[in-house]
């Protein structure tokens, strides 16, 4: 098992932590040689989310950004392998297929239980230790903080959900991961954007939101899942290596970035009381 690189961290002083667990595209050579296609292995990354949220540094937010691809290990899954969405199609802790159901590994090359355990030690735990350490550091400085988990996904993936996903998908673990006042304020902001939106719809928040959101301990967690069409010129329907991912266009992304800036400002206002 190749050695891991630590997640990239911006250490801020504001009571706000951004988690970017699916922006990584690195894959160790000993894993990549077993994959059907390097492109398929990176197809479901949260493309350009780091660029979209780059303004968070101006707010002095802490940013924890993954280095490794979600194909290596999915940092937003329960490490025990328990499904976060029972009864619905999803991908696992160490995915063996894409969101569209395409095989990621050559037959017989999928990771076994021993390898999955090794990947947890090598790739999963460093990210979560970094995230937990930053939460603890900031919690010692502030009475309450907000953990904001940043995600995106293609707008139409029939295997995962019917029709087109709303542009803004706010997840709060069905209201358990954050104070109702914070959730209501963020919901109002995305509603005011004029774009389609939902709270606790198909995506209620993954492991990070559910695990770290402890309002009773002053840690409030939200997940924002963005449909890609909200910030990039996404081709609708099936995508190919020839047209995915598309380039990031800051001008095209500007309206969504403006809404997200208002969301993070609201998170800071809440945390500061």
UniProtKB/TrEMBL annotation:
Gene from which the chain derives: hutG
Top-rank lineage group of the source organism: Bacteria
Stored InterPro entries: HutG_amidohyd (IPR010247), N-FG_amidohydro (IPR007709)
Pfam families: FGase
NCBIfam families cross-referenced by the UniProt entry: hutG_amidohyd (TIGR02017)
Protein name in UniProt: N-formylglutamate deformylase
């Amino acid at each position: 098992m190749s050695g891991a690189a630590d997640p990239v961290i911006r250490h801020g002083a504001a009571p706000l932590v951004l988690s970017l667990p699916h922006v990584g595209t690195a894959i160790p050579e000993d894993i990549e040689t077993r994959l059907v296609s390097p492109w398929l292995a990176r197809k479901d990354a949260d493309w350009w989310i780091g660029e979209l949220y780059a303004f968070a540094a101006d707010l002095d937010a802490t940013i924890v950004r993954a280095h490794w691809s979600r194909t290596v290990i999915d940092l937003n899954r329960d490490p025990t392998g328990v499904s976060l969405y029972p009864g619905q199609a999803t991908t696992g802790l160490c995915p063996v297929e894409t969101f569209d159901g395409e095989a990621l590994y050559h037959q017989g090359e999928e990771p076994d239980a021993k390898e999955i355990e090794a990947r947890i030690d090598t790739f999963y735990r460093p990210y979560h230790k970094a995230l937990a350490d930053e939460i603890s550091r900031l919690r010692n400085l502030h009475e309450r903080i907000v953990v904001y988990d940043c995600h995106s996904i293609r707008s139409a993936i029939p295997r995962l959900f019917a029709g087109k996903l709303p542009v803004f998908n706010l997840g709060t673990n069905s209201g358990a991961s954050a104070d109702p006042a914070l959730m209501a304020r963020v919901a109002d902001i995305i509603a005011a954007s004029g774009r389609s939106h939902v709270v606790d719809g198909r995506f209620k928040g993954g492991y990070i939101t559910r695990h770290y959101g402890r309002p009773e301990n002053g840690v409030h967690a939200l997940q924002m899942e963005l449909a890609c069409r909200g910030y990039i010129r996404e081709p609708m329907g099936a995508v190919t290596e020839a047209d995915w991912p598309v380039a990031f266009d800051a001008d095209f992304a500007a309206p969504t970035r403006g809404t997200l800036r208002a969301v993070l400002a609201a998170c800071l206002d809440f945390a500061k009381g």
